[in-house]
Amino acid sequence: MAESRTVAFHTLGCKLNFSETSSLSRLLENEGFEKKAFDDLADVYVINTCSVTDNADKECRQLVRRIQRKAPESFVVITGCYAQLKPKEISQIPGVNLVLGAAEKFNIVHHIRELVKGDSAKICSCDIEEVSGFHSSWSVNDRTRTFLKVQDGCDYNCSFCTIPMARGKSRSDSIENVLENVKHLAKHGVKEIVLTGVNLGDFEPPNPLALSGQALKGTLETLKKENFFSLIQALEEVEGIQRYRISSIEPNLLTNEIIEFVANSDKFMPHFHIPLQSGSNKVLGLMRRRYKRELYAERVALIKTLMPHCAIGVDVIVGFPGETDEDFKETFDFLHSLDISYLHVFTYSERNNTHALTLKPVIPVNIRNERNKTLRNLSYMKLQYFTQQHAGQIRKVLFEGKDKNDMIEGYTDNYIKAATPYRPEWENEVVEWKI
Hints:
Helices cover 34% and strands 21% of the residues.
């Protein structure tokens, strides 16, 4: 399909997917493809999928149908987590031409070049156990904040989660390579970098045994101790980047030294996103989480002691099998008591090949939805209260581009949203702003 030169992308799911979509786009643009908006006509449409919930699967199918109606002669490529987990199912969706699993997504140029219209859908996937390489990814020009992938995969076995099956074992970039990528981004005018990964706190650089020749024992021991804390220490020293954010980090991996470092940092923003999933220790056990609510409360308390102005976001799952009304009330009361800023609430949905499918009783969908609404209301109140606490303060805002209403928006260091009529001189600039 050498004559096809335009490509459009759509991303479902997490910040990690956004960083990878941007990297896939650059790979194709470097081969001469012109990038189009997803709503425009294009020769190739690439959908980077998520599979955390059933909604992501359904949205993928809806997008393919939309492309079929709009551009039936175009090629449709599906990659991402859904593609790795259910390649045969996706290949049977009318209009899909190519399915790329985790090991093949970054070979997208080669696979697209071989597409022929009229052929049956081609599946390029593999056993997830064979996925071992790490591919650097970052988003540029899509958003003011750049998402930089430094870690991929997960070694945890949470009973509700398919991510280890979709992305493989935990693996990380080298600190040296991360620093080179950050310097590259700084040269291109990036002001804020969001560090992303599947299990970011599990960051561990590649095994130093790859070093050539004889290495000093002391050097090897030092390298073996490198971890996420080592990474953020190194990033603090890079010139040109004004802001870093930690996208999401497990409470058991968010150490006191990381919290203390952020509290004293000039560049790491006072903003944490810490998954909780449930405020009931019973449900946390059923979920196979690696902490109890008491540890979570300790982390929040230390953050707010050192940084009273810090924003804290929380992931929660409602309607997990076995979650009684009492368990949900325990979660609600726990969240209500915590000095947090907002919630990301997920309604539990059954995923194939997960241990949670064996757990009883199953919570009716209408009750799951009611619990979701209750926590979303709590999130709204938490965010309002957090914002009002800072009313009248002067904080630094990184403003983004103009929106469709001729407004310009941005976020304070502690993630409070600001908006004002568009001023071109403020675009991608840090401005002192009265909340």
